[in-house]
Write a structure and sequence with these properties.
Largest sheet of chain B: 11 strands, mixed
Low-confidence stretches of chain B: none
CATH class of one domain in chain B: Alpha Beta
Mean pLDDT of chain A: 74
Radius of gyration of chain A: 28 Å
Helix content of chain A: 40-55%
Oligomer: heterodimer
Helix content of chain B: 40-55%
Strand content of chain B: 5-15%
Structural class of chain A: mainly alpha
Number of strands of chain A: 2
Distance between the termini of chain A: 57 Å
Shape of chain B: globular
CATH architecture of one domain in chain B: Alpha-Beta Complex
Number of helices of chain A: 4
Largest interface: A-B, 37 and 50 residues
Strand order of the largest sheet of chain A: 1-2
Order of helices and strands of chain B: HHEHEHEHEHEEHEHHEHHHHEHHEEH
Number of helices of chain B: 16
CATH topology of one domain in chain B: Amidase signature (AS) enzymes
């Protein structure tokens, strides 16, 4: 890692660094990256994808939101159909869109 | 200070009205105020609300209302966990004035169990560090020896328990941040299985590693608090559907536990004989001991220091000083405003990790570092899964040595190596317990670490309570 690289990365993540910081981090991170190369110790053939575990988290299922709360909110709107709000269609019924098209 | 050896004893004394909860909280507050100028373990002391909670509990006791499981437990909370209407700085300038708008799930659980929160503890900035020297609010000192660090990043929480400023403290553990400070301060510290405890309301650091857990002076309090914290939460979809039960550990026959050890790891520490002595006690108790060949700990550390900065750089993108947090006065352009806010708001350790995280995620190096580290993480998980078919627990040191002196280790790589024995549990997502090895007055404590298979915190409790009864109660 060199100074230019540190400057480029800092600009990318919108981080102001002084000249002294850029020099210091360049030296320190170069040493850290050298250590991180120990990662290459993993033999590629050691990764058996078939053995990978299935996700242990919660089931990937959608759940309904609180119906009472939803009803209370939607009841405040003038146009309501089956607990949903009715809005003008973007393309076919939207007057602003139509006028622009014309 | 009112003397009691654990929470159960305190609760019995409260019910017998030997003292009031208000007395207990006042005693803790007195001690905090005396020690704070030296130890600097708190960022916020919640005097008013703690006393109010204590008086409410005294009322409940007087009127015979049923008490919660943690009634009487005075807790300190690491300052990256949201407590409604209190500052939540995460030890950073960029959040120095941030007031929490809601309670983290763990706080809701503690309050529902009648626990009392006494304050928010100092920590390494945004939980990045192993010495508590990166905090914007100044370093914390180790109560065992104030020339030394308390460890990190939950150094304030560990110091608070060790200095008797609270009975139990919550920390967060991303690469060892509960266990290493527990080891340095002579305490018990637990990191549960990844997904055991909800992360809702915690300042995200590295989301695939972070876990909240307790630090205490004994295993009884430690696992009673863990029991309350643990459980599935709809606000954190990574939480797991299982329930830890404090009572299950007593059903475990300690003699049937198969213990794996790695003699080379003991040899790497400054006092291998201490770890060996505990091993002999366990052998004498009838545990079957097997010598293991584990993948080099350097590998887990390399994986960690690629994935952690990568996740950190993503999580901290939201800290830009626009909606909340530190605002710079320089506002010529929006871009300059962002850069100044972040440049002045973050400390050196965060900046270093942001650069490193962005580097390993950049298109040029993604394959060589980030992707490779994810694959290596799965490789390690597969290796350990096979290992846990033949053993129940792995016994290794928590750290290479005891607490080091303030300013002794300033090189980042040297500091990262502090985590060498703790990161594996985070990389794998398995539970791990650090417990103190016996030490004499004037000596510095060292921790022994036990790791169990996923969701087997009950086995950690069983071995912990066995060691406590056999060694610590002597």
């Amino acid at each position: 890692m060199d100074k230019k690289e540190v400057e480029r990365l800092a600009a990318m993540i919108k981080l102001d660094l002084s000249e002294a910081e850029i020099s210091e981090y360049t030296k320190q991170l170069d040493k850290v990256l050298e250590y991180l190369d120990k990662l290459q110790a993993v033999p590629p053939q050691a990764i058996n994808y078939a053995d990978w575990p299935s996700t242990q988290g919660q089931k990937d299922e959608a759940s309904n939101s609180d119906s009472d709360l939803r009803r209370a909110l939607t009841s405040q709107f003038s146009k309501e159909t089956l607990e949903h709000l009715e809005v003008p269609a973007v393309f076919s019924e939207n007057k602003e869109f139509k006028s622009k098209q014309e | 200070m009112h003397q009691y050896s654990n929470l159960q004893e305190l609760q019995a004394n409260l019910l017998m009205k030997k003292f009031s909860m208000e007395d207990v909280v006042l005693a803790y507050l007195d001690k905090i105020k005396t020690d704070q100028p030296t130890l600097n373990d708190f960022i916020t002391i919640m005097e008013e609300s703690a006393l109010e909670q204590a008086r409410l509990l005294d009322e409940k006791i007087a009127t015979g209302v049923k008490l919660g499981e943690l009634a009487g437990t005075v807790l300190a909370i690491k300052d990256n966990i949201l407590v409604k209407d209190q500052l939540c700085t995460a030890g950073s300038k960029i959040l120095e004035n941030y007031i929490a708008p809601y309670n983290a799930t763990v706080i809701e659980k503690l309050l529902a169990a009648d626990a009392i929160i006494i304050g928010k503890t100092n920590m390494d900035e945004l939980a990045c560090g192993s010495s508590n020297q990166t905090s914007y609010f100044g370093p914390v000192k180790n109560p065992v020896n104030t020339d030394c660090v308390p460890g990190g990043s939950s150094g304030g929480s560990a110091a608070a328990v060790a200095a008797e400023h609270c009975a139990v403290a919550l920390g967060s553990d991303t690469g060892g941040s509960i266990r290493q400070p527990a080891s340095f301060c002579g305490l018990w510290g637990l990191k549960g299985t990844y997904g055991a405890v909800s992360r809702y309301g915690v300042t995200a650091m590295a989301s695939s590693f972070d876990q909240i857990g307790p630090l205490a002076t004994n295993p009884d309090d430690l696992f009673r608090v863990f029991e309350v914290l643990q459980g599935q939460d709809n606000n954190d979809l990574t939480t797991l559907d299982y329930k830890f039960d404090f009572k299950n550990a007593e059903k475990i026959d300690i003699k049937k536990l198969r213990l794996g050890i790695v003699p080379e790891y003991f040899a790497k520490t400054d006092k291998p004989e201490l770890y060996q002595e505990l091993l002999e006690e366990l052998k004498a108790a009838g545990l079957e001991v097997k010598e293991l060949t584990l993948p080099e700990p350097d590998l887990a550390l390399a994986i960690y220091y690629i994935l952690q900065p990568a996740e950190l750089s993503t999580n901290l993108a939201r800290l830009d000083g626009i909606r909340y947090g530190y605002h710079s006065a320089a506002r010529e352009t929006l871009d300059a405003f962002y850069r100044n806010n972040r440049g002045a708001g973050f400390g050196p350790e965060i900046k270093r990790r942001l650069i490193l995280g962005t580097y390993v995620l950049s298109a040029e190096y993604y394959g060589a570092y980030y992707k490779k580290a994810q694959q290596a993480r799965e490789y390690l998980r597969a290796e350990y899964r096979k290992l846990f078919e033949n053993i129940d627990l792995i016994y290794i040191p928590t750290t290479l040595g005891p607490a080091f002196r303030l300013d002794e280790k300033m090189d980042p790589l040297q500091m990262y190596l502090e985590d060498i024995f703790t990161v594996s549990a985070n990389v794998l997502g398995i539970p791990a317990l650090s417990l103190p090895l016996p030490y004499a007055d004037g000596e510095l404590p060292r921790g022994a670490q036990f790791m169990a298979a996923w969701q087997r915190e009950d086995q950690l409790q069983a071995i912990g309570q066995f060691i406590y009864n056999k060694i610590h109660k002597k």
